[in-house]
Amino acid sequence: MPEKPRLNREDVAHVADLARLALTDDELDAFTGQLADVLDHAADLEALDLDGVPPMANPLPLVNVLRLDEPEPGTRADIRAEVLDAAPSVEDGRFRVPPVLGEAP
Amino acid sequence: MSARSTADAVRAGERSARSVVEEHLAAIDAREDEIHAFNLVMADEALTQADDVDRRIAEGEDPGPLAGVPVALKDNLCTRGIDTTCGSRILEGWRPPYDATAVERLVAAGAVVIGKTNCDEFAMGSSTENSAFGPTRNPLDTSRVPGGSSGGSAAAVAAGFAPLALGSDTGGSIRQPAALCGTVGVKPTYGRVSRYGLVAFGSSLDQVGPFAASVEDAALLLEAIGGHDPRDSTSIPEASPDLLGVLGQGVEGLRIGIISELMGGPDQAASVEGIAEDVRARVEQAAEALAAAGATVEHASVPSTIYGLSAYYLIAPAEASSNLARFDGVRFGLRVDADTAPEMNTATRTAGFGDEVKRRIMLGTYALSAGYYDAYYGRSQKVRTLIQRDFSRAYESFDLLLSPTAPTTAFPLGDKTDDPMLMYLADVCTIPSNLAGHPAMSVPFGTGDDGLPVGVQVLAPALAEATMFRAAAVLEGTAP
Amino acid sequence: MSDQALIPGWEVVIGLEVHAELATVTKMFSSALNRFGGEPNTNIDPVSLGLPGSLPVLNEKAVELAIRVGLALDCVIQPSVFSRKNYFYPDMPKDFQISQYDLPINGIGSLELPDGRRIGIERAHLEEDTGKSTHVGGGGRIHEAGHSLIDYNRSGVPLIEIVSAPDMRGAEDARAYVSELRSILVAIGASDGKMEEGSMRVDCNVSVRRQGTTELGTRCEVKNINSLRSMGRAIEYEARRQVDLLESGERVQQQTRHWNEDDGRTHKLRSKEEAYDYRYFPEPDLVPVEPSEEWIAEIRAALPMLPRERRRRLADAAGVEPSDTALTVQRGMDDLAVDAIAAGADAERVLVHVENNLADGAGELTAAPFAALVAMETGGDLTATQAKTVLADLVASGGDPAAHAAAHGFEAMDTSELEALVDRIIAQHPDDWDGFVGGDDKERRKKAGFFVGQVMKATRGQADGRIVNELLAQRADGQGA
């Protein structure tokens, strides 16, 4: 496995951006050190021989969990008023947001 | 009075549910200011629910096995029309339009929801100091933490605020606070209890489970909330197991292994570090008690458990980074306004999340990002397979495994808040069960040198909760 | 395809990604109704709003429809896994989309065009749709809007994304592919395939290369195509843009581009270097889908006949090439045509009527009266023009063609009457007749048209053109031509 460079400030700034978090310079320094510590600890995994070991996404061996194509009887679907009431900003029964600037990526 | 005898008395008409609830509200009144177990005490709602239980009994109905028993809910379980904060500013004031399945089942069993308990923000932490609403204190020593992340639920049971509580356990968040507060805490098999309505942290690891003052009460609560739920695709398609019926069966003939890798100490070649001497001594004593009760006890090896912490702190944050994306200020919860939608998302998340949540979101984002996925997330998932395989191999020779629940007894507030990595080590013994999807529980077994409780962890193969509870009952009966 | 090599010396290479909404009752992962366009945010629930604590449960019907699509496209049906595609956008309620990534339910397959060529299918996978944004202010344009409003009725609607191989060579191919795909989706009940209403959406991958070379050029993905017509325009514009770049010595940059219907151009959205990092990983809230052989066989057995099979069936019945039956099948009138032919009707006349006279649907028309009408026509009892009129009656109200013909007063013109008329017209136009008798093929055809026209004019369309042609030929033969 190739040697990975230690996590740096630019890496943290990049992931903060991807995760929509804004960091001050001080926070950036602090988080960089802390995250690098965790990754350093995780370096013990590099010693393991994992050839041929399948990844495990879920501990259960379940497959084909499906539901019937039927509307659910009862009240659960009728949450419109509650949801719109609790929303930060609503206009004409729709959720209002500031301009989105462009298409989805 | 235990939950079970309380329910029996209420069902028999010997006690009113209202009197039970009033008694617990009085206990809360007396010490809640000092402990801060709750984000919300639902006094009015609880009395209304209790009156409903009493009315049904008067009408000849049986409200169920938890009739009139107050239950405290970790504040990451959705309750319709009731604040559900996850210990976060970003959800302050949010009222879900639906109940979690576990909550529905509690109410269907006659229980009374008495409040929402404090927790580390989005269940990320081991001390309940990461709550946006201030820390919870350990009722046994208020200078100490109650553990976490379900510290409020553990403290509520330990302080007598409620005989039962629900928590969630992603890497030890039920068992570790149970150990630190001297209560019983259970993480069921992954899929045993529905996750529907549990605000997700690490979806492939999260399980809802009980806190109780006794093994029997924990069994009662798990029976009530367990079983298949069609709203959760990862729910095990089986009915809730019979636990109360097996508690008296003892451990005669069971083969029990002490996990060497989780015992620490100089005599262990490959082991996790930081297991305190007094804790290790209690686990060895517990093993002797089980042997005395007729079990065969030996040392067992589950080699890859020592990699659990590393794998966990990549997998759980990766899933969390995705699960917590939806807190974006668009549909619910906090919004910090800005000129554009992306800026609004960023302003909201920056103001709404605490440092630990930000740390894990960034760590997880990094572990999944282009160029690093294979090295971090992909690799960790393979380690998960190794851990499950090692457990399976161990379970060929043993029915149950034993380890400390937490490396130490309850530590002072502020002790580890400056060093995240040090805090993460508090979960080193509990994480492997989450990675494997297996059940495990913490049972109080004496105290450490400081007089604070020590928890012994009983681990079992998938679906073997009944065997696990048999051993837990023996430990409870023989605890010093 | 030489007819679509619009830029001399260059070959255009096209691969298409088609998203189609699946025709389920409820959403992909929850029991909210799969219905939108009405009152905003009415068909919502905790799952389709991505509320904290909500969990997805997969709709069996969506899987079944996806397998139908896979079978219809001869795909390998395989074990599949859902992943999360992470990106922030207000109409995506969880800020990740559940989609199949490296393990799609349908693998390699192909689609047969009406002309018999096969277009490769790389995959056809399941994913969920987003909500719908309305941009307010700035004339509704996304970049100039003052704010946006989100309706989540569409959020969580099941989609199938069908990805073709880069096997198309021009806008015509692309149009034929999309038309055929739409026919298939509609025929198997997977989708209503309405492109204009957005229930079927197409992204085009376009590249160009010098004719005769085999290496693929750098491609651009063109988005925001809302109709077959704009797809053709977008491909032609984009191909021309790339050729212009290459011919002036520049390179094509791999980009995602946005088709603008108003200015008829594509505009750069982002380059490959700016590609978003979606951080795909397996969706932990769902388990793998591994359809059993039995289930697949059951779905296969219940599949209706596919367009290509229907074309072949009609072609066999009519004794023509399958490509000659494409329009009839596309109009869904192949059952009618096959039945009419089976009832003895002349196949050629049947196809001509379907293609020319039934563009607006068959209405009340059924096979038996259709066959009877064609028999009257071929038997000389009705002229082509009269048959068309009666056909319209049958479409409008059904009934017996003979009765409709009688009601219009259509009676077969007596042949002797017609012979006399033909002889009179020949006598009136001796020069034209000489041209008919003595001219080359072209001249002969031209003059035949002239004489038929004259007869039609004199009979106000009541004469049968076929018989007039026969009479003209007899008379020319009689003159020893």
Q: Could you outline the blueprint of secondary structure elements for this entry?
A:
The complex is a heterotrimer of chains A (105), B (480) and C (481).
Chain A: H1 9-18, H2 25-42, E1 66-67, H3 80-86, E2 90-91, E3 94-97
Chain B: H1 3-11, H2 17-35, E1 38-41, H3 43-58, E2 70-74, H4 101-108, E3 112-117, H5 151-158, E4 164-169, H6 175-181, E5 184-187, E6 207-212, H7 215-225, E7 255-259, H8 277-292, E8 296-300, H9 308-323, H10 341-352, H11 355-368, H12 374-397, E9 400-404, H13 420-424, H14 431-436, E10 440-447, E11 453-459, H15 465-478
Parallel strand pairs in B: 2-3, 2-4, 7-8, 7-9
Antiparallel strand pairs in B: 1-3, 4-6, 5-6, 5-10, 9-11, 10-11
Chain C: E1 10-21, E2 58-59, H1 60-72, E3 82-86, E4 96-100, E5 109-112, E6 118-128, E7 132-136, E8 147-151, E9 158-164, H2 171-187, E10 200-210, E11 220-225, H3 228-247, E12 255-260, E13 265-271, E14 281-282, H4 293-302, H5 307-318, H6 326-330, H7 334-342, H8 347-357, H9 367-378, H10 384-397, H11 401-407, H12 415-428, H13 430-438, H14 441-459, H15 465-478
Assembly annotation: heterotrimer
- Computed structural class of chain C: alpha+beta
- What is the β-strand count of chain C? 14
Strand count, sense and barrel status of the largest sheet of chain C are:
8 strands, mixed
Strand % of chain A is: 5-15%
**Tally of structural domains of chain C:** 3
Largest interface: A-B, 53 and 73 residues
Strand order of the largest sheet of chain C: 5-6-9-1-10-11-12-13
Supply the CATH class of the domain at 9-47 in chain A: Mainly Alpha
| Gross morphology of chain A | flat
Let me know the average pLDDT of chain C.
Answer: 91
Based on CA atoms alone, the radius of gyration of chain C comes out at 29 Å
Order of helices and strands of chain A: HHEHEE
Number of extended strands of chain A: 3
Give the number of helices of chain C. Answer: 15
Number of helices of chain A: 3
Rg of chain A is 23 Å
The side-by-side strand order for the widest beta sheet of chain A comes to 2-3
The helix fraction of chain C, in percent, is 25-40%
The termini of chain C sit apart by 43 Å
**What name is given to the CATH topology of the domain at 9-47 in chain A?**
Histone, subunit A
